[in-house]
Amino acid sequence: MATPIPSPPSVPFLGHVTIIDREVAIYSYNLLAKQYGEIYQLSMMGSKVVVICSQELLHEVSDEKRFRKVPSSALDQVGNAAGEGLFTAHGDNPNWHLTHRILMPALSTMNTRNMFDDMVDIVNQPVQKWERFGPRYKIDPSQDFTALTLEAITFCAMSYRMNTFYVEGVHPFARAMADFLVESGNRALRPGIVQPLMRATNSKYEENIKTMQKYVDDVYNQRKENPTDKKDILNLMMYGKDPKTGERSSEKTIKENLLTFLIAGHETTSGMLTFILYYLLKNPEAMRKLREEVDTMIGSRTMTVDDVHKLPYLIAVMRETLRLGPPAPARGTAPFEDALLKGKYPVAKDGRIYCGIYMVHRDPKVWGEDAEEFRPERMLDGRFEALPPEAWQPFGFGVRACIGRPFAWQEAQITVVYLMQRFTFVMHDPSYDLQLKQTLTIKPHEFFIRTIPRTDRPSIVPVATPSSTLLRDQTAPAAQPPVTTPGEGGGHRMYVLCGSNTGTCEAFAQRIASDATVHGFKAVIGTLDSAAGHLPSDGPVVVVTASFEGQPADNAAHFVSWLSALNGSELADVSFAAFGCGNRDWASTYQRIPTLCDDTMAARGGKRHAPRGEGDAGSSDLFESFEHWEAGLWEALQKTHGTTKVEGRQEAIKVSTVDAGTARATALRQPDTMLGTVVENRLLTSPGVAEKHHIEFQLPDGLTYRTGDYLAILPMNPSRDVQRVLAHFSLLPDQEVTISAAGPSPLPTGRPVNVSSLLSGYVELSQAATTRDLRILIDAAKSEDTKAALSELLDGYAEKVQAGRLSVLDILEAHPGLDISFALFLQLLPSMRVRQYSISSSPLADPTRASLTVSVLSAVPTAGRREPFLGVASTYLASLRAGDCVQLAVRPSAAAFHPPADPAVPLVLFCAGAGLAPMRGFLQERVLQKQAGRDVATSILFFGCRSPQHDFLYADSDLRTWTELGVVDVRPAFSRETEQSAGCKYVQDRVWADREDVVKVWQAGAKVYVCGSGRMATAVKQRLVEIIAAQLNVDSEQATDTFNKIIKGRFATDVFE
């Protein structure tokens, strides 16, 4: 019996056109697959298309006796230039069969080997370019790989040099082709009646076709006028005969296929190479293993043709890259006769089927729950060969599969080997996460890198490299200053390297760099990843880094991987010191990365200047711990380098007034690609409890997220606090100043800046003063009474300053006689940092929007404070209105903190207060999947708040509706009205009361997620251990061991303070 194919709601006449992203359609297809499952049907302006997303269905439609290839609408448009080439011709075209038979031998693996030397010739061109431009140059790998692959095709296949690396900017052919492909894709989505009206667009389209065809004419005519005996592909097309019919290709067919090779051949290979670099940079362990394989099997010698296909890990990297980033993300097919897919889904004869290769390559039944993770090991040791049929299909299928696969496969291997031999790679933006650009193919968008010539082994082509690789990215090879240039004048060079996700370590690193000039040093500051492959030896290296569940920060992963792989005395000339941040709540991984860095640098020969310092982010003395360690560091460095501290109160920055403010000039922020817009901001709570807001954002174009990810917000200080500073220093809001700094500074230096803008967005006004700040203020105080009062604060720091969150501003206001300059005030303040909030929505609801569920922090005044304490980011977010613009970015959460791909897997969710945010996203996704007809398990939500009337978030809206749908079973714990929650006050109490249900759903294969404060998470974990102890009748220690064993892969936490 036939089963209807599910289909999303549609719009009359247009069908589903409006729900498909025009820029990156594959995003929409993938989200629909998550919602509707392995198959769904779309109507595109009256034309029906069935989309398949599983290995089973792809295997079925790959039966060439039942199904035939159908070029996509966009591919049909490409035929406007490429005619009836191999890529665009329909299966019944006789020219396709003739050309295919002629060219098959020329593009065999054996014949491709003969092109090896020519390929090496071409690969050397971008390598030499990157070497000459050096580590400061900002590289667009997609652009350079496009130039490489175009050059390789023209030279290897046609013995013609395009010279793409020797022209200014982009080659005219490449530019015309890129524009042509974009417009071909756009034409495929437009109603036919509209196209004739777009005269300017049509004119440009025709011009691009003429440019491409003229280039092909030049290639063809040059060969006709200058014959050669070289057995390249062009000669074979011109003079070869069809082994079946004896016919030769016509001039028209030859030219169409030359253009086809250039279009199809360059796009897929350049995309694959760009994806390879991206995934290796995001997965430093894979990068390390690949580099190790190249170094071991090829070393510094020149690669030969016999090395091709001999590097198993490289092949695994290429296969895994093509799995996650197949440049051709889909193909079209249709049945010869009416068909029932899987024996139940009806597809009419000649009905279009969209084979979603991108989704099939993520099929959890084949690839597992970690299908989104880059793991080349899944392609090794026979696992690739053991895959079910059609689980991996990046090159098409059957007789219409990519004829140039051997060419691309060899070209990619040569390129990657040459790059691995010569360079260490660094992302231009360490926080970059994959964004796609889609034309006929997909490739990373706005992805930039820097290349650092390797110095850890002999290079095939020796290149000079500076001692420090901590250099600013630039877009041209002209000289540029370092990331943060050392202060003018004398001083020993030093390097401050940070690994930071949340901004704390970065702030500490900035503090060290800013203090350097006072102690006789010139500091350069950068990320740890900027030093991967080469630690500077011409000055002390100071490492400030953190652990995140035992893993390095995003901008430290490559450094840690590189450092861990060292096995000799490579750092004998390096001197260093390290400070680590961590949280003792996670005892098993506390300080893991700082300890690893410190121990390994010493083990590899480095000289330690000072014992490793450590700070506990979960305690009140984090800043005091850092300052105590920093003082010891400067003392040690002064001894070893013979420097002296400049005594007296030093102002490392200078502020000059530019405009008195009477003109009321306004400094406007320019919107950038990361500018989001507030769509909605509504209060979720009743008066009398801490405010909690639901805030929805329209995301910038191209920004995507997964359920469970974070939204990073760059906030502004509360206007109240800005006004307090202005009043204290007798400044006008519109006054302008210029700032000059003796050392690295996070402030806007060397240009006029509005004082109000400076105070609003560049510094943290509310952060508690540190012990170092207090000592500086004591030195600045002129009154003995003031000195005594400040000394009292210093002596009782934890209780009187840290606990009460007394800021420098609070202290200045409490002691009017304490007179410091505005410049020194700015110097004492840390730079503004981003705050990360769990996204409380699912992209299945709307991929262009994301919501936050935010608790607003407002504490009553404590001793020493005149005003209530306001949380910077939460106050900022609560004040936003619809239409306001916000600087934001999506940050990925831990790999485990995403809902399972199979909605039939039940979830157990533990949270309290705003910790409900990611859980709401999980449940919203499950609701949409259920409404799409998928089998969805009922999840249990344990939620803690004060009372059902005041702060039971979403109780009367989402949670009620979702409960009625059977998606969730809510188990609340009301701390102020326990009689309303089965006598349970906190989440952990409700867990114990409902322990039988918890055990039952766990035995059904549930996955468990916890989000909330560290205290809540620890209490829930302890209660789960107690449940195990009671179930198994064992003691606490045995129950804890059992808990730690059974939760692997099934328990994820997202904890905040």
TrEMBL record:
<dbReference type="Pfam" id="PF00175">
    <property type="entry name" value="NAD_binding_1"/>
</dbReference>
<keyword id="KW-0813">Transport</keyword>
<dbReference type="InterPro" id="IPR003097">
    <property type="entry name" value="CysJ-like_FAD-binding"/>
</dbReference>
<dbReference type="InterPro" id="IPR001094">
    <property type="entry name" value="Flavdoxin-like"/>
</dbReference>
<keyword id="KW-0503">Monooxygenase</keyword>
<comment type="similarity">
    <text>In the N-terminal section; belongs to the cytochrome P450 family.</text>
</comment>
<dbReference type="InterPro" id="IPR017972">
    <property type="entry name" value="Cyt_P450_CS"/>
</dbReference>
<dbReference type="InterPro" id="IPR008254">
    <property type="entry name" value="Flavodoxin/NO_synth"/>
</dbReference>
<feature type="binding site" description="axial binding residue">
    <location>
        <position position="402"/>
    </location>
    <ligand>
        <name>heme</name>
    </ligand>
</feature>
<dbReference type="InterPro" id="IPR023206">
    <property type="entry name" value="Bifunctional_P450_P450_red"/>
</dbReference>
<dbReference type="Pfam" id="PF00667">
    <property type="entry name" value="FAD_binding_1"/>
</dbReference>
<protein>
    <submittedName>
        <fullName>Cytochrome P450</fullName>
    </submittedName>
</protein>
<dbReference type="InterPro" id="IPR017938">
    <property type="entry name" value="Riboflavin_synthase-like_b-brl"/>
</dbReference>
<keyword id="KW-0521">NADP</keyword>
<dbReference type="GO" id="GO:0020037">
    <property type="term" value="F:heme binding"/>
</dbReference>
<dbReference type="InterPro" id="IPR039261">
    <property type="entry name" value="FNR_nucleotide-bd"/>
</dbReference>
<dbReference type="GO" id="GO:0003958">
    <property type="term" value="F:NADPH-hemoprotein reductase activity"/>
</dbReference>
<dbReference type="Pfam" id="PF00067">
    <property type="entry name" value="p450"/>
</dbReference>
<keyword id="KW-0288">FMN</keyword>
<dbReference type="InterPro" id="IPR017927">
    <property type="entry name" value="FAD-bd_FR_type"/>
</dbReference>
<feature type="domain" description="FAD-binding FR-type">
    <location>
        <begin position="671"/>
        <end position="900"/>
    </location>
</feature>
<dbReference type="GO" id="GO:0070330">
    <property type="term" value="F:aromatase activity"/>
</dbReference>
<keyword id="KW-0479">Metal-binding</keyword>
<feature type="domain" description="Flavodoxin-like">
    <location>
        <begin position="494"/>
        <end position="634"/>
    </location>
</feature>
<keyword id="KW-0349">Heme</keyword>
<dbReference type="InterPro" id="IPR001709">
    <property type="entry name" value="Flavoprot_Pyr_Nucl_cyt_Rdtase"/>
</dbReference>
<dbReference type="Pfam" id="PF00258">
    <property type="entry name" value="Flavodoxin_1"/>
</dbReference>
<dbReference type="InterPro" id="IPR036396">
    <property type="entry name" value="Cyt_P450_sf"/>
</dbReference>
<dbReference type="GO" id="GO:0005829">
    <property type="term" value="C:cytosol"/>
</dbReference>
<dbReference type="InterPro" id="IPR001128">
    <property type="entry name" value="Cyt_P450"/>
</dbReference>
<keyword id="KW-0285">Flavoprotein</keyword>
<keyword id="KW-0408">Iron</keyword>
<dbReference type="GO" id="GO:0050660">
    <property type="term" value="F:flavin adenine dinucleotide binding"/>
</dbReference>
<dbReference type="InterPro" id="IPR001433">
    <property type="entry name" value="OxRdtase_FAD/NAD-bd"/>
</dbReference>
<keyword id="KW-0274">FAD</keyword>
<dbReference type="InterPro" id="IPR029039">
    <property type="entry name" value="Flavoprotein-like_sf"/>
</dbReference>
<dbReference type="GO" id="GO:0005506">
    <property type="term" value="F:iron ion binding"/>
</dbReference>
<dbReference type="InterPro" id="IPR023173">
    <property type="entry name" value="NADPH_Cyt_P450_Rdtase_alpha"/>
</dbReference>
<keyword id="KW-0560">Oxidoreductase</keyword>
<dbReference type="GO" id="GO:0010181">
    <property type="term" value="F:FMN binding"/>
</dbReference>
